[in-house]
Amino acid sequence: MAATFFHQPVAGLNGWGIDVPSFGSSRIFGKLLSTRLFFNSSYHKLQHPVLGSISHDSSTESSLILIRHGESMWNEKNLFTGCCDVPLTKRGVEEAIEAGKRISYIPVDLIFTSGLIRAKMTAMLAMTQHQEKKVPIIVHNESEQATLWSGVYSEKTTNQSIPVITTWQLNERMYGDLQGLNKKDIAEKYGKEQVREWRRSYDISPPNGESLEMCSRRAVAYFKDFIEPHLESGKHVMVAAHANSLRSIIMYLDRLTPQEVTSLEMSTGIPLLYIYKEGKFSSRGSPVGSTEAGVYAYTQVII
Ligand SMILES: O=C(O)[C@@H](CO)OP(=O)(O)O
C-alpha cells in the first residue's frame, strides 16, 4: 500500500515562503514568488565570546553579513578563476570555519550564495559554528521536480533550518580569456599596469570577460531585487560570494565612486557586517574574533 502521509511540503521553494526568482525565471530577473514566511527572527540573545549578549530588534534593524569565500585551489596557485568552479583549499576550509566563529552570535535567517562551490562551501562551513545550530539547506528551484523532490515535510524541522539560495548573479566576474592563466605570468607578459587595469579598473573588461561595471549590473540588481526586500522585512541575511561581486555590492552599500572602488580589496574568508536600518546601511567592519582585538578586511596589495 502506498504511504498516505505525503502532503504539501512545509519547505521547498514555496514552502520556505521566501522571495526568490522562480525556476522559470531564474536566469533573468523575473517575478517574485510571494508566499508565507515560515522563518521568524526568533533568536535575539546570542552570545559573543568577548562582547557577551547582543540584542537584535528585528522590527527596527537587520544584519547583513558579507563574506568572500575562503582560499580556493586556484587562489593558492595564483590563477585567474572567474566563473571556473573550483573548491576551497584546506586553508580555505579553515578560514571559513574561523569566519563562522566570528559571526556565530549574529542572527542569520536567510543565506544567499553564488552558484559556485567555493562560496557554497564557505557558507556551509561557517554555519557549522553558529550558536543557533540551525541547518542550512540549499533551496533547489532549478526545475519543478527539483523543488518537489527537495520538499521538507515537518514544520518543526523547517523552523530549525536556514534556506540557502544559490544564484549565478552573485558569481565572480567572468574573467574571459584570462581564466586558468597565472596572474604573475600574465603581468610579465602584458605588464603590471595592464593587468592592474584588467583586475581593478571599474569599466575596463579583461579580454572577452566582464568589467566590474558589468559584474555590478547583475550582482547589484540581484541584491536590490531579491536581498534588500528581506532586510527591509527584518530578516538577517548572509551573502557568501566573491571578490568582485562583493566589491560591486560594497560599492553600492558604501556609495563608493568608480575611482574609490579601484583600491577596494577583499581578503578571503573575512566576514563584514552591515546593519540595515530605516532604508540605510551602516558598515560595522568585521566582527571581532575571540582571540584578537580587531581585523582588517581590506588589503591594498594585489599580484
Ligand atoms: O581570479 C579571480 O577570479 C579573482 C578573485 O580571486 O581575481 P582578482 O583578484 O584578479 O579579481
From TrEMBL:
One of its GO terms (biological process) is glycolytic process. One of its GO terms (molecular function) is phosphoglycerate mutase activity. Keywords: Glycolysis, Isomerase. Substrate binds at residues 68-75, 81-82, 118, 172-175, 183, 199-200. It holds the Pfam family His_Phos_1. The record marks H242 as: Transition state stabilizer. Its EC number is 5.4.2.11. Gene3D superfamilies: Phosphoglycerate mutase-like. The keyword Isomerase applies. It comes from the Eukaryota. The active site is at H69, E172. PANTHER family: PHOSPHOGLYCERATE MUTASE. HAMAP family: PGAM_GpmA. Belongs to the phosphoglycerate mutase family. BPG-dependent PGAM subfamily. This is phosphoglycerate mutase (2,3-diphosphoglycerate-dependent). It comes from Trifolium subterraneum (Subterranean clover).
